[in-house]
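Escalated from tier 1: magnesium ion holo job.
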Amino acid sequence: MSKLNLNKTWNYATATESTNHILLKEKYDLFINGEFVKSNSKKYFDTINPATDEVIAKIAEANKKDIDLAVKSARRAFRSWSKLKAKERGKYIFRIARMIQERAKEFAIIESMDGGKPIRESRDVDIPLAANHFFYYAGWSDKLDCAFPNQNPKPLGVAGQIIPWNFPLLMAAWKIAPAIACGNTVVLKPAETTSLTALKLAEIIQESGLPKGVVNIVTGAGNTGAEIVNHPDIDKIAFTGSTNVGKLIQKSIAGTKKKSTLELGGKGANIIFEDSAIDQAVEGIINAIFFNQGHVCCAGSRLFVQESIADIVIKKLKERISSLIVGNPLDKNTDIGAINSKEQLATINKYIKIGQEEGGEIYQPKCSISKKGNWCPPTLFLNVSQSHTVVQEEIFGPVLAIQTFRTIDEVIEKANNTPFGLSAGVWTEKGSKIFKLTQELNAGVVWANTYNKFDPTSPFGGFKESGFGREGGLHGLKAYLKFE
Ligand code: NAI
Ligand code: MG
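Tier 2 regenerated the structure:
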């Protein structure tokens, strides 16, 4: 009987999402005090589709004066927003959540066009989760006294929020929803390669009737971000991005009264024990590292396989990555989309080169890749050890470093031997092992027999160089409140 071979005998017909109904402006301005306004810099930069190299739109670059206007507008709005009946605040946030749901398809397509992620992910993960964050925190707005009884919770004031390019709308939701639910007002800056869905969110916010100035959205690159960090009238900085910029922010705000939460890089350990359900674990390994092209701070980028099953797991993994579809993010069959930017692709390629130079054994399946756009095939590194650069440093791409282990104590020591402490995964049928590892792994999130599962009710954040503070759940509210 011939074996069903999905790689060689089956081809998927393309199923590309249409972009005909997507309405994008040629130029996007800043969203300050409830209006779209031109930047004082008069400068615009291009936002590019990383799968085609085409310019999708021009985005305004905010300068110091613009940031000052945005902060002043947020400060003015804070006076009334913080005093508004909490139930009324909640109504606005519910409305924003509903409006995201209503326009979910449009948002998903724009997210994939601007950032390169597969439509399957933006449609099924990013956009629904973003709406869920608004729903979840809308529900808390009038229950803060129940969440923190006898502590008299009060908002902090104006929050400066800086977000990365890997989950553009979702990170905006993680930042804005809890902040405004607690009665704060915000100045948010999306990442320079992926501003569009944040600006589309600004349109929704305008339409929702949210009082002017409660949410201000300013665009630009690192300099614009630094202006927010250094503005004297900001009460809190919430940042998600690289550990290097996190360190810069800490230096800048040292000695000021600004509060901060930093969600930085990671190098998650995904640990597969010999008693795990191997096929499920292989799927889990794939999801852990190749979800969103590996542009995930909590990606399972270090795989630890118990020695007795290493051969079979690696064989299955190689077979499985050969069937992954790399290509057009808007095709519903695509598993791995485009790398977010030319800069990020150069970083990933630099690490792949270092990995080989240091003696790692590379495995990449053959895939036909378009000449235009930024692409990287799923990549495995075998024969690497703790001291290899590809094991130690965050690559933020579809590159998995594979090591083996014999005992539980050995793998705990190896998994914790990293400057980061954000996430880990454990695959085993034994509950007692799960309990031991969840206690001994130094990671903010440990998934058991699954990976990359997110929920607004669950706190997320790291230890060590992965940053501090938690987003999501009750913990996420606490980061935007003071207690008197
Ligand atoms: P980045 O940290 O420079 O960018 C993140 C955000 O910070 C962007 O909005 C950016 O404009 C802003 N920013 C940059 N410099 C700033 C400054 N001096 N002050 C205030 N804001 C500033 O990250 P980048 O350069 O895009 O990526 C480099 C590496 O960082 C990646 O390869 C990856 O390893 C890591 N990274 C981690 C993320 C995470 O989710 N933990 C997200 C993005 C990047
Ligand atoms: Mg772009």
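The first strand starts at residue 27 and ends at 28.
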